[in-house]
Amino acid sequence: MEGVCFVTRRIGIIGAGVVGTAVGVVLSQQGYEITGVYDVKSESTQQIVDRIACTTYSSPQEVSRSADILFITTSDTAIESVVEELAASHAFHAGQVLIHMSGAQSSEVLDKAKQFGVRVLSVHPLQSFASTDMAIKNLPGSMFSIEGDNDAYDTAVCLVETLKGEYFFINRQAKPLYHAGACVVSNYLVTLIDFGVKFLESTGIPKSMATKALIPLIQGTVRNIENIGIPKALTGPIARGDLNTVLKHLDCLEEMAPELMNLYSWLGYYTTRIALEKGTIDRNCMEEFQTAFIRELNQFESVS
User: Fold this and answer.
1) Which of 55, 74, 152, 184 has its CA 20 to 30 A from that of 300?
2) Are the CB atoms for 286 and 275 separated by under 8 Å?
3) Per-residue CA distances from 210 to 114, 118, 195, 264 (Å)
4) Bridging pattern class, strands 143-148 and 119-125
5) How much of the chain exceeds pLDDT 70, in percent?
6) Taking the model in full, what pTM does it have?
7) Are 35 and 195 in contact (CB under 8 A)?
8) Exposed/middle/buried for residue 1 (C-beta within 10 Å: 0-12, 13-18, 19+)
9) Could you give the residue ranges of the DSSP H alpha helices within 67-174?
């Protein structure tokens, strides 16, 4: 499919932030024609122009009229208003494919374009982009979710394969739950690491040293997940059925850092199910752990 599907495809980009710029640069490198770009901030358009020498337009309508595939890579809250503006000025054309790359929004925000014979898609990279340079580096090879009009899936698959990525399809109604899962893994991982750092801080270890000390452990755990998957990657006292060690944790927490008790107990309660799935504890052992955690949670509720 690669090398065939882009020959007659012209791409326009509305919204030249980190993701829009990265998409434009990478697809341009792979042979797509970037017909034009528009952003409300001229400095944003300049960075993509500097990289691929594409045309900067003074309105989103000009970009839309120039393109067979139109990316709207604005902020999530602006996507629908851009579509409404383009629809009001009849800037769409039949056969065009309209794409946004938001994780939170479904393709529903693009539906107003359908009255013009446009097919709509949400193509979301499961990736974190801290900067434009990192986005250009990390976008190729990412995993993508594809959601929207079935008869436009070939276009989405072609784009993803051009980016040397993998993909799966989801339905429109499931998009919020899908995005919540991505947020848990990306955003709440930061929260979880901060939580672990606070444990070490409670013992007198400086925060910078605590973070540095935990990085190799984090990296090793991620490699285990990548290599052997979940639940096999689970280690530690719950996976071993070592209730005494967990009780010592709870006793020490109660004495030295009671504010950390609640989240520790909820995480432990959830982890018992993973340990059971791994097969290293039985149901009776799981219930013993859960009883201990519930006891602490109830105590926390009564105090608060």
Assistant:
1) 184
2) yes
3) 53, 53, 11, 18
4) antiparallel
5) 96
6) 0.84
7) no
8) exposed
9) 79-88, 132-138, 153-162
